[in-house]
Amino acid sequence: MTVNHSYHGVLIGLLVAMIGSFFADLLAGPVSLQWFNIWAAIIENKASLDSLIFFEIRLPRAILALLVGATLGISGAALQGLLRNPLAESGIIGVSNCAALGAVLVFYFGFTQWAWFALPLAGLLGALVSVVLIFLLAGRSGSTVTLILAGIAINTIAGALMAMALNFAPNPYAMQEIVFWLLGSVANRSVSDVLIIVPFIVFGGLLILSCGRFLNALTLGEETASSLGFNVQVLRWRLVVGVVACVGAAVSVCGNIGFIGLVIPHLLRPLVRHDPQRLLSVSAMGGAVLLLLSDVAVQVLSSGGELKLGVITSLVGGPFFLYLILKNRNVWG
Amino acid sequence: MRAIILIKWALVSLLSLMSCFAQASVPQRIVSLSLCTDQLLLMLAPRQHIVSLTRGAVDPDLSYMAAEANGFLLTGGNIEEVLPLNPDLIVGSAFASRDAVHFLRQLGYPVKLIGLPVSIAEIRDLLLAFGEWVGSLERAEQVVRKMDWQLANLNLQQDRVKKTALIYSSNGYTIGSGTLENVMLNAAGFHNLAVDMGVVGFEQITLERVVAAQPAFLFIENHIDNSDSLASQYVNHPVLDKMLLSKQREFIPSRLRACAGPMVVEAINYLSENHHDSKP
Amino acid sequence: MGLSAVLNDESLLLTGQQLTLSITGGATLLNAVSVTVNQGELVGLIGPNGAGKSTLLKLLSGVDSPSKGCVSLAVSGSLEPISALSVRERAQKMSYLVQGAKAYWPIEVEKMIALGRLPFQKWWQQSSDYDQAKVVRAMQLTETLIYRNRIVTTLSGGEQALVMMARVLAGEPEVIFADEPVATLDPYHQLHVMELLRAHAKGERAAVVVLHDLSLAARFCDRIYLLNDGGLFCEGSPEMVLSQHNIARVYGVDSQITRVGQDLSVSPVARLNNR
Q1: Torsions phi, psi of C257, nearest 5?
Q2: Where in the sequence is the domain holding A305, given as residue range(s)?
Q3: ipTM of the complex
């Protein structure tokens, strides 16, 4: 069927783009590397300066950009499918900031030593609290206005609590670092940062993907979805756990990188003809591509002084958000 | 005969009168608003003229004169605490609270501010000027002489080719030209790679450039050891341990470099010991 | 129209016994209502606003669970409580059309109708040719083939209602439950939808419909349940239930009931004071 062909075409195209931008990110950096040395390091296990930079600095950064971008993309698509609202996104509805709050409480008060998974778990729990709040405040198929207002409230409270926590943190640098948590960055991360979040992201991603058919059924509303054979209560929570697991972990290591989950599903929705299930995998790849390219931009634009990744995504996403609102002003009450 | 006695008496009276005036122009109640002026006071001013210091003065991590600071009244360096002490001279750092300084001057208190020396010559000038403010110029000259003598007699192993060095601090900052730290590195016989990179003052550099620079000595400065922050993740990044060609060392402890003064000699000594060190 | 069916155990398709639903807060939405549906029947649920019709429909279709009582479906000759069926099996046999059905995303009509085949697909399966054939057949029945590539949200109210019916029919359920399927439609589409329900409720299948329009109920339903205030007022054939007395008691209106050939026509005339 032509429909399937075009979907496969989209998947392949995005996969190619993702691989391409991954390599572009590996190439981007202030120091120009001798690729021969890196090749030698892989084949002959011969360490060199270039291989050191490549494996310890660039590779973790690129992998993080890919994983976090994919997470934000797929979770944006999942939340939009669940809440049946194209403005739902982990940043806008407050999930990211609550995850950051959880991470901040664990990081600055010394609980990261407790277990290797302490930090991403804290992000997950923070994110979970915010989703529960969103459901309580805005209901499941609440109007857009209610959803946005609930998101504003949660974002504000989470931001204030974060600032307070950082203020009381024992470390004098803590207060300035709120910029990282609110804007996000993938720079200066090590391999261990990548490893601690991979299980959460894989787990969360798989849970989300398993709810794809449910999201399709939700196109007709919850009661119809129930009558079509889906246990709405269970699947809704499965989807939520998937989202908070991967978003919580991603934010706990990279801060709140905003707007990817809003922009990517919106751009790619026409490519999958509004099929919520297909949008999931497509948004994952699209998100990875966007974040990788944004990181390349960061490397090119700032030589030395660090431009935070979140600045680029906000510069792109903020106006996009405005444009969405203006375009659909009369549609949303 | 009687005339000579009269003249002597007049001279003595005149002299004592003059010394009274001279003493009256020497501050008797000096208050310090910052750590660096605390230390200068403890080094140069008579103890009985010092009314209060700041809390940092007794912290052995921050203050070179911590032991000598015991027994003095300690304040937080703000106006409320200072005014009731009725000072006749207030000293502080030019980077301290401008509002406080402005307010105190408006109330008519003499406030003297010190700057940030970036060379040995500027340290000398600072010591002498401060000595004059607190009425201990002679003592200041003594301290300067001692400092110069120590500098001249530093037992430095001057290699023909200077060993390369780079400072890497929390939040990815390095220290380049136009700073006292740079002067200390040079005096200790190192070549600061940050200057080659064009760094002026305090600037951030990426981890990649640190690795690529391959300094013989990488001076790590992690201000806080016991609590976590993203700032310290820069200096704790695993790649630094894998830079096999670079020896990692602790940079000068805070008490030797937080403020300018004769302790600069000790700071240079501290650095130069790394030269002779055969630790890996 | 139809004769009042004699209750024949072999033709019993669905029963709801003493169904009660209370919600947190103490209010009782439905109180001990029993319903039976036989094969080949189109059953109507009527009553004033707030009588509990939609609640009863949701309980019968399994969308909600009753606080007390039990709903059973005839499966291979015997009655099984629907709570014992797997969710999948229940979805295959019973299809629910929600009040004011709409699509939340602007998807293509054909794709939306294909959602009706979801209960038949395992999680790894995509739409098969068999599914596709059922979808096309549903579109033929509802005369919506011409809209197959249109976007659902761009259709008119009447066209959307037909497309929603097609989604339900694509699943070929044994029982269709429809909540006010014709409330906002023009007369043409009202009749079309009711005819589709009537055509479905033949042979071994049935349909249960919540209606406000009493004439439509009289015309198309085999049996009617008249609900009031969460309880059953009376049930039976349209002639039995739709009497002037019953309507006055339950709706509080004086009505004119006329026979036009085989059909009963009910017209509310004036409000009464007894309500």
Answers
A1: -115, 120
A2: 2-327
A3: 0.88
